Amino acid sequence: MKTRITELFGIQHPIIQGGMHYVGFAELTAAVSNAGGLGFITGLTQRTPELLAKEIARCLDMTDKPFGVNLTFLPTFSAPPYLEYIAAIKESGVRIIETAGRSPEEYMPVIKAAGIKVIHKCTSVRHALKAENIGCDAVSVDGFECGGHPGEDDIPNMILLPRAAEELKIPFVASGGMADGRGLVAALALGAEGINMGTRFVATKEAPVHENVKRAIVEATELDTRLVMRPLRNTERVLRNAGVEKLIEIEREKGATLKIGDIYEQVAGVYPKVMVNGEMDAGAWSCGMVAGLIRDIPSARELIDRIMAEAEELIRGRLGAMTDRA
Ligand SMILES: Cc1cc2nc3c(=O)[nH]c(=O)nc-3n(C[C@H](O)[C@H](O)[C@H](O)COP(=O)(O)O)c2cc1C
After folding, report:
1. Which of 56, 122, 270, 275 suits a disulfide with 22, CB 3.0-4.6 Å?
2. Going by C-beta distance under 8 Å and a sequence separation of 6 or more, which residues neighbour residue 197?
3. Nearest residue by C-alpha to atom 10 in ligand 1
4. pLDDT-derived band of residue 324, with 50, 70 and 90 as boundaries?
5. Which Pfam families match (predicted)?
């Protein structure tokens, strides 16, 4: 399948693996890229730019296909040295960055001077337009369904994607709620040129996370995610668990006076506990509603091949037959 996204990034299939804290290590990134998609190493999971350079080197040993690095600009307890991370990416030879969270505007001159392509992940048409205006090459449009940070507008992809298509000149991929060929075909119909997936890629063989995490996603239904941190305007969609129930209880008690310190235990340092140790009740970790569509743990290649085969069958078969009859 050829789209503006496959052309832009030099990839075979229009399927991207978004950055994921404590999931986006070299193993998954390389597996996705080797399968013809576009994998992303999660920059900030590496505690220093030097460690990121090492992770990129590991990935380069595992694939000769294009891959990128995610740089997330979110409120954290201490601001990371972003310019040094960008320098590490540049020096390693990686030429694709996925930005997310805040606008990457202040870093664009440095990134562009290094010849790096930028796909910015955002949750609204206005932020997508801003990304286009500051020179991003593409955007990932993240609907309300998505795992992670859906923003504060709560617009699902069925509306957000066609709205983005109406306004944007640069190509975009649909992010949030994507797991199979049906999602890909729907996204293409709504104007996207590919898909970005998070949760679906966590439940793959190569995702280097505890088996409990993969099992929890397979067992979860579309009813099992919760929105947390809305009072802080840092809303996150997470999988419900005992830690998250506690967090929601604190949010209810504190109301508008909630401070990040009140929920420190439920949100800080949770990822290693969940992803490495498999402590499923530790607190807030991102997971999308799409968990309701995830029922197995295939390899990245099996997953991507299946999505592409399903998409082709849908387009040529079911949809084609409908128009033929007409
Ligand atoms: C476990 C997990 C961790 C994530 N961490 C990050 C992150 O660090 N930075 C980021 O930009 N997006 C992060 N995301 C969001 C994904 O990159 C992607 O945009 C999102 O999962 C898409 O929605 P989906 O889960 O419905 O596919 C994370 C998602 C998950 C499931």
Report:
1. 275
2. 15, 16, 17, 18, 175, 178, 179, 290
3. 19
4. confident
5. NMO
